[in-house]
Design goal:
The protein is mainly α. It has seven helices and four strands; from the N terminus they run H-E-E-E-H-H-E-H-H-H-H.
Length: 197
């Protein structure tokens, strides 16, 4: 609920004032909109990618602030392919004016980072760390890659090479973390089996 509340607030401000993402509007393609501005699906979509981003971030044994920042970067990295796929290739939302990345303004990146950072903090404060630690790490990483892969595939087929280039590093990074993710998944599974035997 907290994540959806933060996301809805940011999106409502964005569509109403242009802050913190830039000036844009959603079309009718995403269905009914809250207050005629933000589709109901949008806050849920933030949550559904925020949780695996948070899970991947807490894998790193660093300070909480560093984990929140990494989670924010992972969530924002999704938008490098999502936004061009959903606004440039398909008109699910429309940017008003010119932008640096297929119509997307640079302010949007900053807005995503700040919003995502707040969301990571909210997830931590509301006990989500215990939730993700109880879930299979491999599943969460695979889910993140699967969702990212949908928009990445769209920009790849569409020939949006800047978006492709910006997205590849996060895919490579997750691939480099896969052995440790799998190892922690196996350890968690053994611990769970031991606790139920």
């Amino acid at each position: 609920v907290g994540v959806c509340g933060v996301a809805l607030t940011a999106e409502w401000l964005g569509t109403s004032t242009g802050f913190p993402f830039g000036e844009y509007r959603y079309t009718e393609l995403l269905g009914p909109r809250i207050d005629g501005k933000v589709p109901w699906l949008i806050p849920a979509s933030w949550f559904l990618m925020a949780l695996p981003s948070f899970a991947l971030a807490v894998e790193r044994k660093e300070s909480r602030l560093s984990q929140w920042l990494l989670g924010a970067v992972l969530l924002t990295a999704w938008d490098f392919s999502l936004d061009p796929a959903m606004s440039y290739l398909s008109p699910y939302w429309v940017w008003e004016g010119e932008g640096v990345l297929y119509g997307m303004p640079l302010l949007n990146v900053a807005g995503w980072l700040v919003t995502a950072f707040v969301i990571m903090a909210v997830l931590d404060w509301t006990g989500s760390r215990r939730v993700v630690e109880a879930l299979p790490r491999g599943f969460l990483a695979g889910y993140y890659l699967a969702v990212l892969g949908m928009s990445f595939g769209m920009v790849l087929v569409g020939g949006l090479w800047i978006s492709v280039a910006l997205t590849i590093p996060v895919i490579v990074w997750i691939g480099s973390q896969w052995p440790s993710i799998r190892a922690r998944t196996d350890v968690s599974g053994l611990a769970h089996a031991g606790s139920t035997s």
